[in-house]
């Protein structure tokens, strides 16, 4: 419940404080005094659109601060606490909204800066605003359906929630089933293309790290002659040519001579002894290198056939890397499947074991000079195999989805029928309640009808199109509201609908903005009495120009103009009994000091008090 609202810098309002109380509060004032700005301020406070054009000329910003009382353990308090705000020690909550002349908007809840959307969310549990714009909204069939559902209470809301869950699930299953069935040919082609790629890779049987090994083999085989010649020359220089049968001046022989020369004298000098040791090591190392060269010479041999096989395998690996490697044209399983057998080159036949047998994965800790692209090919193959398994299960999936869709369709149909039944019952009660309200608003012969017509197919809110219709008198046909009522009648009809709807809405505060426009006389008295009755259930704030309505208020505030036409800081005044008599006299006769007007006003207040006291 709102306790007070301070508005500064908004339209014609410079600074105004609204002191609110439980029950029925009427807000009156001369035309242009700022009553509409008060409602605009309340709209801002609860997350309404921030229009910088509403900022008062000369003011840097417009701001609205509201203090309200709410349950410390309730939903609103919990939402504020989750946003980082706190209730005051006395259990009240302070909300603040400001908008600058440049259009920047800020919101605070419980002393903490919050998104404006939080104020809108809190408003659902704090206030319901009913005004001329809301009447236009209520003329829309979609809004009428929402209103009827809310009026229907928990019975409708629970079935509607169940229906929407079933409806959304049915749509999801139907979309998936449609995709599978309509794209069956494309998915079959995708599976065939993936199998083609997997077959090619399986025949080739690549091994991680193979590319670098084959590259080294090709380099060695292509240069076998030069490698053999160089190794032979080096071997002869180190160890001589054993085929010549003569002792040449090779490195091993010369090192042996030098070593023997030093052996004879090394005991006489420690320095030469150290040199002799190093010379022995050099002789051993050279002998070892010479032996390795001899082994290498025996292993190296020009083999054109093997070279051709290695080059052919490297070409085949390059092809699969190009197709299925990290940058391959078919690397992505979904969207870029492997090329079909018709568009791709024929896969090479499996290679002879003599080529692949020498190719082994890199040892642990050994790294190729470049990232191993074969690993990416093998990863593609794993993903492709999984995708093929998924695509091969399409028939089972389609059968399962078909069954699920049929079951969900039945569930949606049954829940839609139940929803229609509940809406029909709620519509009958709603029509009776609003018709009774119209009788009290001097439209005793008018009848409200809630018409449900079926849509072509179920939608997100069921299969019903809801429309509220009015028969203005017994012989009149039931027509849509905007066609079945005159301007004055429409205001009363909309007020009756809003009052009935508000009675079903659990929010603690209702704001009515001149929904009594276009009526007067006895109907105005009845409007005031109906609002007073509603105020027994909740706080009601009404902006009105009718003295018959204002007379029923428990609390009367007036928006007063200053001499220069602006609203001062004391622009909103709480009236005592004498003040109410003067204000009602002004509203009745246009002259607040008229004795006749004041007498009429006093009589009106007495009548309202008597009417409001009745059950």
Can you describe what's shown?
This protein is α/β, with parallel strands linked by helices and 615 residues long. It is built from 21 helices and 15 strands. The strands form 3 sheets. The chain has a 6-stranded antiparallel β-sheet with strand order 2-1-4-5-6-7. The chain has a 6-stranded mixed β-sheet with strand order 8-12-13-3-14-15. Helix 10 (251-263) runs antiparallel to helix 11 (270-299), helix 15 crosses helix 17 (487-503) and helix 20 packs across helix 21. The longest helix has 47 residues, at 394-440. It starts with a strand and ends with a helix.
Q: What is the number of helical segments per DSSP (H or I, 4+ residues)?
A: 21
The fraction of residues assigned to DSSP E strands is 15-25%
Largest sheet: 6 strands, antiparallel
Helix/strand/pairing category: alpha/beta
Sequence of strands across the biggest β-sheet: 2-1-4-5-6-7
In angstroms, what separates the terminal alpha carbons? 24 Å
User: What gyration radius follows from the Cα positions, in whole Å?
Assistant: 47 Å
User: What coarse outline follows from CA principal-axis ratios?
Assistant: elongated
Mean pLDDT, all residues: 82
The level of helicity is: 40-55%
Segments where pLDDT lies below 50 for 5+ residues? Answer: 335-370
Query: Using DSSP, what is the number of strands?
Result: 15
């Amino acid at each position: 419940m709102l306790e007070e609202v301070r508005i500064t810098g908004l339209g014609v309002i410079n600074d105004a404080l609204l002191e609110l109380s439980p029950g029925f509060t009427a807000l009156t004032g001369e035309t242009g005094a700022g009553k509409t700005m008060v409602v605009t301020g309340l709209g801002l406070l609860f997350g309404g659109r921030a229009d910088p054009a509403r900022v008062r000329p000369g003011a840097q910003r417009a701001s609205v601060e509201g203090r309200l009382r709410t349950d410390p353990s309730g939903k609103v308090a919990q939402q504020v606490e989750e946003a980082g705000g706190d209730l005051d020690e006395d259990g009240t909550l302070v909300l603040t909204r400001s908008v600058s002349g440049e259009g920047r908007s800020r919101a605070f809840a419980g002393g903490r800066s919050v998104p404006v959307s939080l104020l809108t969310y809190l408003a659902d549990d704090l206030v319901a605003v009913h005004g001329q714009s809301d009447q236009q909204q209520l003329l829309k069939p979609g809004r009428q359906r929402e209103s009827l559902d809310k009026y229907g209470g928990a019975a409708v809301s629970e079935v509607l929630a169940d229906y929407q869950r079933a409806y959304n699930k049915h749509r999801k299953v139907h979309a998936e089933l449609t995709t599978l069935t309509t794209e069956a040919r494309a998915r079959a082609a995708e599976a065939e293309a993936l199998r083609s790629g997997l077959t090619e890779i399986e025949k080739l049987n690549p091994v991680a790290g193979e590319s670098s090994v084959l590259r080294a083999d090709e380099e060695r085989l292509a240069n076998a002659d030069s490698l053999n010649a160089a190794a032979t020359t080096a071997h002869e220089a180190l160890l001589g040519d054993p085929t010549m049968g003569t002792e040449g001046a090779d490195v091993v022989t010369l090192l042996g001579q030098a070593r023997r020369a030093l052996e004879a004298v090394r005991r006489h000098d420690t320095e030469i002894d150290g040199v002799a040791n190093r010379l022995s090591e050099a002789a051993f190392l050279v002998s070892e290198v010479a032996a390795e060269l001899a082994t290498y010479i025996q292993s190296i041999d020009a083999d054109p056939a093997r070279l051709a096989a290695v080059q052919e395998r490297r070409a085949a690996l390059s092809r699969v890397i190009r197709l299925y490697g990290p940058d391959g044209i078919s690397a992505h399983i979904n969207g870029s499947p492997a090329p079909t057998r018709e568009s791709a080159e024929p896969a090479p036949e499996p290679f002879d074991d003599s080529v692949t047998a020498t190719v082994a994965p890199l040892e642990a800790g050994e790294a190729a000079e470049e990232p191993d692209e074969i690993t990416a090919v093998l990863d593609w193959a794993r993903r492709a195999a999984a995708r093929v398994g998924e695509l091969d299960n399409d028939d089972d999936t389609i059968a399962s989805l078909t069954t699920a869709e049929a079951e969900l369709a039945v569930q949606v149909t049954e829940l839609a029928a139940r929803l229609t039944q509940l809406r029909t019952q709620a519509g009958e009660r709603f029509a009776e309640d609003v018709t009774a309200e119209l009788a009290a608003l001097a439209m005793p012969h008018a009848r409200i009808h809630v018409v449900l017509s079926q849509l072509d197919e179920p939608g997100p809110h069921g299969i019903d199109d809801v429309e509220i219709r009015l028969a203005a008198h017994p012989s009149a046909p039931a027509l849509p509201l905007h066609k079945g009522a005159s301007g004055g009648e429409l205001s009363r009809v909309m007020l009756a609908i809003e009052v009935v709807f508000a009675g079903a809405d659990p929010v603690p505060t209702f704001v009515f903005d001149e929904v009594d426009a276009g009526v007067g006389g006895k109907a105005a008295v009845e409007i005031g009495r109906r609002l007073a009755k509603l105020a027994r259930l909740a706080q009601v704030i009404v902006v009105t120009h009718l003295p018959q309505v204002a007379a029923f208020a428990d609390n009367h505030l007036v928006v007063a103009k200053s001499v220069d036409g602006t609203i001062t800081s004391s622009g909103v005044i709480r009236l005592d009994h004498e003040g109410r008599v003067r204000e009602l006299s002004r509203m009745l006769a246009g002259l607040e000091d008229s004795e006749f007007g004041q007498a009429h006003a006093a009589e009106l207040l007495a009548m309202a008090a008597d009417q409001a006291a009745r059950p």
